[in-house]
Amino acid sequence: MSDATAARPKKIIIDTDPGIDDAMAIFLALRSPEVELIGLTTIYGNVYTTLATRNALHLLEVAGRTDILVAVKFHEFIASLFVFQKGMKLRVANFVNGADGLGNQNFPPLPFLIEQANLYPGKVTVVALGPLTNIALALQQDPAFSKIIGQIVLLGGAFGVNGHVHPAAETNVTDIVFTSGADILVVGVNVTHQVVLTDDHRQKLARSDGKFAQYLCKILEAYFSFHLGIYIHDPTALLAAVDPSLITYTERVVRVQTCGITRGLTILYNKQKSLMFGEVTEWTAKPKVKVAVTADAPAILNLVMERLMDS
């Protein structure tokens, strides 16, 4: 790691939909001295939000880090709390305190992402490993979020390669986020496909005494039953947030196709010069984002192995 990244731990929130890859990234964050993990936010993606929240809580329990907050949209969290109490009727004193508990003033809830960004302006990095709904909602609820958040590192997009959802698209993309003006680093599948964890790596993890390594070896069986090697998407994005020197990137305007058979396509405007004749288009005056181009796969794999084995 460079001196800059080693100087002071980054305050990181992981927006996640755990997820085997997500589990590896969360454990990696907990084993990285460059990271101060201040919370997890959960979102629908690999699983429904309620199960994503349960998985996130479980992973922190496995890690012995139940001090770390897991934030989820309020109504979904309440549903998850009472999932095992079927038939129970919840009784509240809204006839005394008002429907919102505070005299029917209907104060809007302050989402965790906005709260933390305001608490540490310019200091919080959000590592978004799933669909960008939570980020988009934060941007819509607080237009200043794009300026006070330090950086958003997102796993998403498929630049020049087929996506996961269909040939044109990868799932974790939202035009609102890409054009928000926040400091954004996009790590697409075109880059994460450069980082492959092989069965030899898995066997090495299995032979280690690392608690996280042993846990991951069990859940990785599902992946390796189908593949000789696996792309480690989420850990690559996490490490790109920790140490940007592990990747190379270009800065360009990116838009996301929102309709038709190419819905979800990430389109990178790759021209160096301005649009001709001063024409105003959907690309005019849009902010640039950083788009990862290559990854130092050996260095990333070495860090993943070293930190998970020493756990």
Automatic annotation (TrEMBL):
<dbReference type="GO" id="GO:0008477">
    <property type="term" value="F:purine nucleosidase activity"/>
</dbReference>
<feature type="domain" description="Inosine/uridine-preferring nucleoside hydrolase">
    <location>
        <begin position="12"/>
        <end position="300"/>
    </location>
</feature>
<dbReference type="Pfam" id="PF01156">
    <property type="entry name" value="IU_nuc_hydro"/>
</dbReference>
<dbReference type="GO" id="GO:0006152">
    <property type="term" value="P:purine nucleoside catabolic process"/>
</dbReference>
<protein>
    <recommendedName>
        <fullName>Inosine/uridine-preferring nucleoside hydrolase domain-containing protein</fullName>
    </recommendedName>
</protein>
<dbReference type="InterPro" id="IPR001910">
    <property type="entry name" value="Inosine/uridine_hydrolase_dom"/>
</dbReference>
<dbReference type="GO" id="GO:0005829">
    <property type="term" value="C:cytosol"/>
</dbReference>
<dbReference type="InterPro" id="IPR023186">
    <property type="entry name" value="IUNH"/>
</dbReference>
